[in-house]
Amino acid sequence: MKKATPFLPDVLRQGALAMGLVVALTAASAAAEPYTLNVSDKINVRVVEWKAAESTFTEWTALGGEYVIGPAGTTAFPFVGDVESAGKSPQDLARELADGLKQSLGLVVTPNVSIEIAEFAPIYVAGDVQSPGEYKFLPGLTLIKALSLAGGERRGADANSRAERDVVTVTGAYQVLQDEQLRLLAKRARIDAELAGQETITPPEQFAGVEGVEPLLSDEHAVLVANLKALNSQSSALDSQTTVLQRQIETFSQKRTATERQLSVAQEQLTNVRSLAEDGLAVVSRVASLETSVADYETRLLDIDMAQLQAQQAIGDAEIRRTDLADSHAAELSVERQEVEAKLAEVNLKLATQQGLVREAVAYSGIAPGTAGSLASYTYSIIRNGEEIAADMSTPVLSGDVVQVRLVVAE
């Protein structure tokens, strides 16, 4: 969400902040399968209370901070105690923690809790691989990518062993670059939709026939919706400000009409009293009093005119800010698109280079990428929550998983 501009009232700025917190809790849910927390995940917790009487948010820094999901799958939170965390999405855990704080502290209003993942639990690659051990987890990880992190399968001493390992390694690296290319294409499509003022994203041509791109478009659509809401919120605030100022101008016009009428009556009375005073039929003090009244009405008219001019100037300022808001948003999107284009060009160059390495490795080994040699084959499985699951190269790997690779030698 974009930052609130300085001319917005405090209440609207606080509302924009509240919207940002809601987006933080709901953006991840746009994906088809939201991430579920695992043991050893590190999470950042932020607790915010809305004070309606003061129209402000107060952050409870003593309760916020970084927490780790323990071996039992629970997390210890102040005032709430141990909360089952593993297997839940960050949004579900945030809601449960908010309800727990409300109940334990006896609050009238449920506090706003947001949770984001600071660090995923690592994965482990074990068995017949070049470098077994612990590796950092990233969303979208598959078995072949995890295998490439560990250097590929461990080969025997036959002549084709190194060639087969090279095929697996370069193929995994190539697929990682392909995934990054798809993410950048989805991001560029979202930016183009925002620049065109569209509420939906047109899938890139490169996505035709490609599997697994729906989550990428879903994530970018969530960003698109959040940005449009932020922009519309600020624009609506300017519309409200302009409406109030226009009503003030109408009120000033009515006051001016009434004051002009009073001034006309006072001027007429002053003319008559002066005539009588010249004939000695009225006292001089009466003339002075009416002159003071006339001057007072004239001053009121000047004040009304000044107030009208200030209101009109404020309307003009609001229109300028509205234009600046749209121009600033378009400029930010243009810069972001240039950055994406530069990254795409870099990834495309790396893809071309990596594709050449794949072809060279395949030609040298005489095998197809991902196949085993003639004397041995590999089996793959994933150990998750104590259960071993058969897997292949495209099987998704979750944080905390153990990837098991076994070399089966033909008899």
Tell me the total number of β-strands.
11
In this structure, how is the largest beta sheet organized?
5 strands, mixed
Structural class: alpha+beta
- Quaternary state of the chains: single chain
Instruction: Determine Rg (CA atoms, Å).
Output: 35 Å
**Structure annotation, total helices:** 6
Low-confidence stretches: 1-32, 368-376
Order of helices and strands: HEEEEEHEEEHHHHEEE
- The share of residues in extended strands comes to 15-25%
Mean model confidence by pLDDT: 80
Organism: Devosia yakushimensis
Keywords: Signal
Domain Soluble ligand binding: 123-158
Signal peptide: 1-32
Describe this structure in words.
The chain is an alpha+beta fold and 411 residues long. It is built from six helices and eleven strands. The strands form three sheets. A five-stranded mixed sheet has the order 8-7-11-9-10, with helices on one face. Strands 1, 2, 3 and 6 form a four-stranded antiparallel sheet that branches. Helix 3 (143-149) crosses helix 4 (161-195), helix 4 packs antiparallel against helix 6 (284-365) and helix 5 runs antiparallel to helix 6 (284-365). The chain is elongated, with a radius of gyration of 35 Å. The two termini are 62 Å apart.
